[in-house]
Amino acid sequence: MKRTTTMQTIILGDGPLGWAIAAAAGERGERIPIIGRPAFDRHHPTAVSGADIVVDASQGPAVRANVETGLEGGVRRFVIATTGWASDREPVERALIDAGAAAVVSANFSLGMALFGRLVETAAELFGAVDGFDPFLLEWHRRAKADRPSGTALDLASRMTAHRPAGARTGELEVVSIRAGASPGMHLVGFDAAGETIELRLTARDRSAYASGVLAAADWLRRATRTPGIHPFDPVVDELLARPADAAAA
C-alpha cells in the first residue's frame, strides 16, 4: 500500500545498498534522498536537517562521523546498515545515549538472514550435543567487499559458538571467506562428520531483501519511542513475526 508522510528519511551512502533502499521506498510511495560522500571530512549538519531518520549505508570509517553529524542536525533515529565500524561502536552508542537517540544496527538487514541465524543457533545446539560433528562456515561476497570475514559471518560465528557446549570459542570455528565476482552474499553453515555432512545455506540474489529490512527497522523506530542507544534487528523481526498482516500494510 502506498503511503504519504511528512516525515523524512535521508540515506547517507550512494552505493548499491543505498540505491536499493531508495528503490524499495519508492515502491511503497516514498521518495528518499540519497547523499554521497561529503566534500570534506564529514557532512555538514544542515545536510540532514529536517530528517527524522538517517539511514547509514556508507562505509565503516564514516559511520561515527555520520551519526555525530545527524545528532548535531537534530536527528534522533538512525538505521545503521554498514559494517566495519566495530572499533567505533562504543563512542557511537555513548553519543546516541547522551543525545536521547536510538539506532537499529545490523550487519545484515535481510529478514531471511535473521531467521537463518535462529536456525543456525538451533542446529549448533543440536549438533554440538553429539560427538563427531565439526562445524564450519563459508561466506562469499563480491570482489570489492573490504571486510573479511563479513559482519554477517561474524554474527553467525558468534551464534554458532554461543550454542555449542561450554568452552567453544569463536576462534575455534573454521571460517572461510571468498572475495570474487559480483555475488551480493552467500553464507553456508555446515556440520561435518565421518559419514555425512549437513549444510544450511542462504544466498542473496540482490540487495532488495536488505533494503526491505532497513525500511522495516525505520518503521519500527517510528512506531514508538525507543530506549536511547543501539538496538539489534531482532526486536524488529519479532514484531514482524507477531503481526505480519499489520506490518505488510504499514
What is the oligomeric state here?
Answer: single chain
Number of domains: 2
Shape, per Cα inertia axes: elongated
Structural class category: alpha/beta
Mean pLDDT: 90
CATH-defined superfamily of the largest domain: NAD(P)-binding Rossmann-like Domain
Largest sheet report? 6 strands, parallel
CATH fold description of the largest domain: Rossmann fold
Q: How would you spell out the order of helices and strands?
A: EHEEHEHEHEHEEEHEHH
How far is the first residue's CA from the last residue's CA? 8 Å
Q: What proportion of the residues is helical, as a percent range?
A: 25-40%
Unreliable stretches: 1-5
Helices, by number, come to 8
The portion of residues forming beta strands comes to 15-25%
* CATH architecture tag of the largest domain: 3-Layer(aba) Sandwich
Using the coordinates above, name the CATH class of the largest domain: Alpha Beta
Strand order of the largest sheet: 2-1-3-4-5-10
Radius of gyration: 19 Å
How many β-strands, per DSSP?
10
What would you note in describing this structure?
It is a single chain. It contains 8 helices and 10 strands. The chain is of the alpha/beta class and 250 residues long. The chain folds into 2 domains: 9-109 and 207-249, NAD(P)-binding Rossmann-like Domain (Rossmann fold, 3-Layer(aba) Sandwich); 111-203, Dihydrodipicolinate Reductase, domain 2 (2-Layer Sandwich). The strands form 2 sheets. A 6-stranded parallel beta sheet has the order 2-1-3-4-5-10, sandwiched between helices. The chain has a 4-stranded mixed beta sheet with strand order 7-6-8-9, covered by helices on one side. Mean pLDDT is 90; it is low at 1-5.
